[in-house]
Design goal:
Blueprint lengths: L5 E8 L2 E8 L4 H9 L10 E5 L2 E5 L4 H16 L7 E4 L14 E4 L14 E8 L3 H15 L3 E6 L4 E8 L4 E7 L17 H4 L4
Parallel strand pairs: 7-8
Antiparallel strand pairs: 1-2, 3-4, 5-6, 6-7, 8-9, 9-10
Length: 204
């Protein structure tokens, strides 16, 4: 007998169709197993995150979102070496029971092979938003703080500002500031890697 509500996802993977029954709340291990079995292959190119036990389907990014990610990726790789950080773009990591896929990650140097990086490996996490203000600024900020992500930048495109958060107390970030052009910004893990905020937001 089912003790929790169930729902079905019908998917096609490796030339076969199957149904996956998932509980109303998924654990990180359950989600990882579904990914390995190809449960979401048919949904590509849409991406899926596991947030608070729920599957979150991410819509394809628009041109302005892609432009900002491209700029931040080039800035990240230009200002670091392989000995400083491992730069990843829109890749997932283990965030306790959650599996978010932030826009840009600075990870501790090295290769991670078959294991996913964890929150302890994250030096800097960047989310870019031109629409998902509430989720990324509030829900995800608490999620990242709870898991111990050292520093979180939320790039708010419409307002031309960056919310910079650090020093988690295990539930929330205690150091929160807003940076607007022309003030430069650098991550705590690499103070010399200054971001030119004027240039970042200089798009039409």
């Amino acid at each position: 007998m089912l003790t929790r509500p169930q729902r079905l996802i019908r998917s096609v993977s490796r030339n076969r169709e199957f149904e996956v029954s998932i509980a109303s709340k998924l654990s990180g291990a359950e989600f990882d197993s579904m990914v390995e079995k190809g449960a979401f292959d048919a949904l590509a190119p849409r991406k899926i995150e596991l947030i608070r036990g729920e599957l979150r389907f991410m819509n394809p990014a628009g041109p302005i979102h892609d432009d900002f990610i491209d700029y931040l990726t080039r800035w990240s790789t230009d200002r670091t070496t392989a000995a400083d950080a491992n730069i990843r773009v829109q890749c997932g990591f283990v965030c306790d029971e959650d599996r978010p896929e932030p826009d840009v990650l600075w990870l501790k140097p090295g290769r991670y092979g078959r294991k996913r990086p964890t929150a302890d490996d994250v030096l800097l996490l960047i989310e870019v938003s031109d629409s998902s203000l509430s989720s990324d600024l509030h829900e995800k900020a608490d999620l990242y703080a709870e898991s111990g992500v050292a520093e979180y930048w939320f790039v708010d495109i419409p307002a031309s500002r960056i919310h910079v958060m650090s020093r988690s107390d295990g539930k929330h970030y205690r150091d929160i500031k807003m940076v607007t052009p022309p003030t430069p910004l650098a991550p705590q893990c690499r103070p010399l890697a200054q971001l030119d905020t004027n240039e970042l937001f200089a798009v039409s």
